[in-house]
């Protein structure tokens, strides 16, 4: 079922084409999103109510759920489900807590002291999708690092379900995160509300979270025209599996399908040193696909995917680095040797017993990751995404004496006399 | 000369207006920039040559200077100037070297091991402006962290000077950075060349550097339509000075003017607890302004600036955090107490003897900083800007047994059966 290529037969152009993602610029929806943004900017809460009626078929009075409502909803899920969410929360918390580090102070010259201080981004907005799939895991993946960073205000938006509420899983995650409100707005309107603020929804400094093409387009527009920043550009989800002779075809097929069920535009790539393994994976795909509730979606994604057969695992890794996958699974006994060679990827799953889905939910790593090749220059979401690092410097008299003439010379050669003056006027006082 | 406001008399709207930057969307230049980008994407080097003729009035054969040419140019500057650039290089290197940190490995559950690994962004592009002012300091500020990060390819673009070369200061910095080529292209065309690649200029993964409005617009367009990322959005430079009774009016005036000489759109804000100090600063501004070669520019920037008088320094700091200045100077004997309260700023200069210009050139901190209020969510450029952090995870048999059911439950409640299967199929083998 997977189109299969022999690596040695691929030209440089072929490889460029295979590593290029299906990037639909979505210009078709631009006008709609522009209108929604303008509507929310101008009419605030009224616009959000109208848009909830139009897109979510729900008439809202209050635009948010309060603590008591969240508490009640959270109580509707089973203890087993609560426990699973708690374990995920704990693991994500443990891993992300390692990311907040103390910065070192350094004297670059005697009396010239420099350091950085970490400060939380004060107000952050988390968008939690709630259309075809409701994703409480995403709330944990964004909420936990925001809490560890110490953000003062965490605004959460999610589209209202048919009953005008959110589901119990989302509510339970809010409880775990000690977030006492959730705003009932979805799509481009939620992004606009957090970017401009409305009577109900506070304006934030940075917006996080995945979403459909309307959400993605709105985030991109907001980024280019306001001072609100976004976590990262988003595209369809993807996995690349590197597998050698030691790999299990059934496991690989299961991992490819876990990716494929996300959406018809997902991509699942297999790069293997064994052509017989690729064949076995194709057979396993056929078998496993038949049993999936989301088989139609997964089938389309698999048609959009491919396998590459390479002569050795180093070549497989080189291709993976060119592709820069969101998720990379290395199913090889030899995974330890390969870690160092991973240059471009979002999150990496090592060995035969580490399926991507453990990272999607509960191993502790973040699942908000760069897609579409952005792993070449972006990291996934982490505590880093919720803080700024501010540089500080302080000069003693000795420090200014040490560095003064250097700054004067450099300011002068750049033709910036006032920059020089700011040093000279102080130096003169020291000398007198 | 500075318009002065009494803080207590300002309404919330006034404060919003005062903290809002003069953000010109520059839609007027959008068409020009679009055309330049399209031209470079389609015609590569030919387009760069045509645009150099049009905008830099120079006919270029080779589009870059090689190592020998750089060497020759670097030898044309004085030993004193070389030494000043070396000291700046060393201090910037010392400070930025502290930013590369080892990440911790953690077992979130027995047998579930997670960690991050830092990898350089492979190919980075540095834009060094060369119009009204040539800025070798910017080359150091971008080149040093790129080298420390370990980027494999560092592409530097700067517009050709009248002689078809770059000046000796830039050349000497290239030497210090061991960069053996510089591409002679400026403006939007340089950004497009690094984003799409031409016959001469390599395509990069991330583009850094300040520039005029054409450069800024090109970076913004590139970010929204390619997989190439950028350092941060850019606006006019700015400083905010917090000063109490202990401050020296002459020093403050010199610092405000150092900012003002950057451009007529620069902003220099003074927030002080002393109205007599504000008055003294105004007098000092008049005196110092007269002697500046760039007085006309500075004068305009000062007209675009203001002072605020507050009753106490805590209120001054609160206003500064709302403004989120690129540069914050705290001229107070009491600076130590105020460090913790700084929430939003790019780089901070503490005490009476730490003018901004030391950080612009040589203290060691970076001068590529968030403007226009972006300091609320962005950090300045650092080694972090040149690396990605990739998450890794590896499960032992015990690890999968520990976490398996949690993942199964969570996948099921999100309706993602194939995610569950990827775990179940492995667990089944462990049990048998």
Q: What report would you give on this structure?
A:
Two copies of one chain form a homodimer. In chain A, strands 1-12-11-10-13-14 form a six-stranded parallel beta sheet, with helices on both faces. In chain A, strands 2-7-6-5-8-9 form a six-stranded mixed beta sheet, with helices on both faces. In chain A, strands 3-4-15 form a three-stranded antiparallel beta sheet. Chain A starts with a strand and ends with a helix. In chain A, α3 packs across α6 and α7 runs parallel beside α8. In chain A, a hairpin with a 2-residue loop joins β3 and β4. Chain A has three domains: 151 residues, Nitrogenase molybdenum iron protein domain (Rossmann fold, 3-Layer(aba) Sandwich); 188 residues, Nitrogenase molybdenum iron protein domain (Rossmann fold, 3-Layer(aba) Sandwich); 36 residues, no CATH class. By secondary structure, the first copy, chain A, is an alpha/beta fold. Chains A and B meet through α4, β3, β4, α8 and α9 of A and α4, β3, β4, α8 and α9 of B. Chains A, B: Its EC number is 1.1.1.23. Chains A, B: GO terms for molecular function: histidinol dehydrogenase activity; NAD binding; zinc ion binding. Chains A, B: This is Histidinol dehydrogenase.
């Amino acid at each position: 079922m997977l189109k299969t290529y022999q690596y040695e037969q691929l030209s440089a152009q072929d490889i460029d084409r295979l590593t290029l993602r299906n990037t639909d610029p979505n210009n078709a929806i631009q006008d709609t999103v522009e209108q929604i943004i303008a509507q929310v900017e101008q009419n605030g809460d009224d616009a959000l109510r109208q848009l909830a009626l139009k897109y979510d078929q729900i008439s809202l009075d209050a635009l948010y759920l309060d603590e008591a409502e969240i508490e009640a909803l959270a109580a509707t899920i089973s203890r087993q489900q609560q426990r699973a969410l708690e374990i995920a929360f704990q693991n994500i918390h443990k891993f992300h807590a390692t990311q907040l580090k103390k910065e070192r102070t350094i004297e670059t010259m005697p009396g010239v002291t420099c350091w950085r201080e970490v400060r939380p981004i004060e107000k952050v907005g988390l968008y939690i999708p709630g259309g075809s799939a409701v994703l409480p895991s995403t709330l944990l993946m964004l909420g936990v690092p925001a809490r560890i960073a110490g953000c003062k205000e965490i605004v959460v938006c999610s589209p209202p379900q048919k009953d005008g509420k959110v589901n119990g899983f989302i509510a339970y995650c809010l409880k775990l995160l000690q977030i006492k409100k959730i705003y009932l707005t979805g799509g481009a309107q939620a992004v606009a509300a957090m970017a401009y603020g409305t009577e109900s929804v506070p304006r934030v400094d940075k917006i996080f979270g995945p979403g459909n093409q309307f959400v993605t387009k709105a985030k991109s527009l907001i980024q280019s025209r306001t001072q609100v920043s976004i976590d990262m550009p988003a595209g369809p989800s993807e996995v690349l599996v590197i597998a050698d002779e030691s790999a299990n075809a059934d496991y690989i097929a299961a991992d490819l399908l876990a990716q494929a069920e996300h959406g018809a535009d997902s991509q699942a790539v297999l790069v293997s040193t064994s052509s017989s393994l690729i064949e076995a994976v194709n057979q396993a795909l056929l078998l496993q696909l038949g049993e999936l509730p989301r088989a139609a979606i997964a089938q389309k994604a698999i048609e959009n995917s491919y396998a590459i057969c390479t002569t050795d695992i180093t070549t497989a890794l080189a291709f993976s680095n060119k592709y820069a996958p969101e998720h990379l699974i290395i199913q090889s006994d030899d995974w330890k040797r390969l870690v160092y060679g991973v240059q471009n990827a979002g999150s990496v799953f090592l060995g035969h017993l580490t399926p991507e889905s453990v990272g999607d939910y509960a191993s502790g790593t973040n699942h908000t990751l760069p897609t579409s090749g952005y792993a070449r220059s972006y990291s996934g979401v982490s505590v880093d995404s919720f803080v700024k690092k501010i540089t500080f410097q302080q000069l003693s008299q000795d420090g200014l004496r040490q560095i003064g003439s250097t700054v004067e010379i450099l300011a002068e050669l750049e033709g910036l006399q006032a920059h020089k003056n700011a040093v000279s006027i102080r130096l003169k006082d020291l000398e007198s």
